[in-house]
Amino acid sequence: MSLEQSIDCPDCGTPIAIETRALMEGAAFACGNCGAEISMAGRAEESWGAAQAKFAALKADMLKAGEGEA
Fold first, then answer.
1. Could you give the C-alpha distances from 14 to 10, 22, 37, 51, in angstroms and in order?
2. What are the pLDDT digits (tens) for 12-50?
3. Best label site of 6, 12, 18, 69, fewest CB within 10 Å?
4. Whole-angstrom Cα distance, residue 25 to residue 34?
5. How far apart are alpha carbons 31 and 34 in whole angstroms?
6. What string of H, E and C letters represents the secondary structure of the chain?
7. Taking the model in full, what pTM does it have?
C-alpha cells in the first residue's frame, strides 16, 4: 500500500511528492522547482508519537474487551 501524496510547496506552489510514512519518520522532501524543503516540525513529531501510543493502547483495550465476548 503506497502512502504517497503531494503537498504544495510553500514557496512556489509546485506539488511536492511526499511519502506519509517517511515524513512521519523525519524525512525531508525537496521541491523540484525551487528546492524548498518540507519536513515534520519537531513538536509535530512529538504529537504524532503520542497519538500513535494512545491509538495502540486503545486498540489493545478494544481487543482485550473483545476477548470476553462470545
1. 8, 20, 12, 30
2. 999 999 998 888 888 999 999 999 999 887 666 677 778
3. 69
4. 24
5. 6
6. CCCEEEEECCCCCCEEEEEHHHHHCCCCEECCCCCCEECCCHHHHHHHHHHHHHHHHHHHHHHHHHHCCC
7. 0.56
> What are φ and ψ of residue 66, in 5° steps?
-70, -20
Contact present, 27 and 20 (Cβ < 8 Å): no
Q: What angle do CA 49, 52, 54 make, to 5 degrees?
A: 110
**Cα–Cα distance for residue pair 20/1, rounded to 1 Å:** 11
Q: How far apart are CA 52 and CA 59, in angstroms?
A: 10
Strands 4-8 and 15-19: antiparallel
